[in-house]
Design a protein that fits this description.
about 30% helix, binds zinc ion, 5 strands, about 150 residues, five-stranded antiparallel beta sheet, HIT family, subunit A
Length: about 150
């Protein structure tokens, strides 16, 4: 497995040099919402990354940290309203990629209980959803988050 920190995958995604499935979905001041850069067992699993390289939430500027809460809440509401999720999780772990990112993972009424919570990170390949389904969910979220929508 290649090293996600040399060069930094977070910087590559926010600059547009690397496109995860789903691409860049929305932006807020200092923050970028994009598809998760790994196989996903749930459509609509997205990630907020800081535009600036920061190790973790504790290195964000106060203004960006404030923006993060409102932006994450808006995205999670869109996961429920536009995608039909019944719940949404937020995870900021940072053991693998050392560029601040917050995973926002929807849970649907038909999501198997073995994929609830952080178990989504350990989903076996048989649970991974096809790229087309993940792209469609990203487009639906982008539309729901577009200014004026
Ligand atoms: Zn970075």
């Amino acid at each position: 497995m290649s090293d996600v920190n040399a060069p930094c995958l977070g910087c590559a995604i926010v600059s547009g040099a690397t496109r995860p499935v789903g691409g860049i979905i929305a932006r807020a001041p200092g923050l970028v919402l994009h598809g998760v850069a790994a196989p996903s067992p749930v459509p609509g699993w997205v990630v907020i990354s800081s535009e600036r390289h920061a190790r973790a939430l504790y290195e964000l500027d106060d203004a960006v940290a404030r923006e993060l809460g409102a932006f994450a809440a808006r995205v999670m509401r869109a996961q429920r309203k536009a995608l039909g999720a019944e719940h949404a999780y937020a995870f900021a772990i940072g053991d693998v990629l050392r560029h601040f990112h917050l995973h926002l993972v929807p849970r649907f009424p038909d999501t198997s209980q073995r994929l609830w919570g952080r178990a989504a990170f350990d989903a076996p390949p048989a649970d991974h959803r096809p790229a087309e389904e993940l792209e469609a969910a990203a487009r639906a979220l982008a539309a729901a988050l577009a200014p004026g929508s």
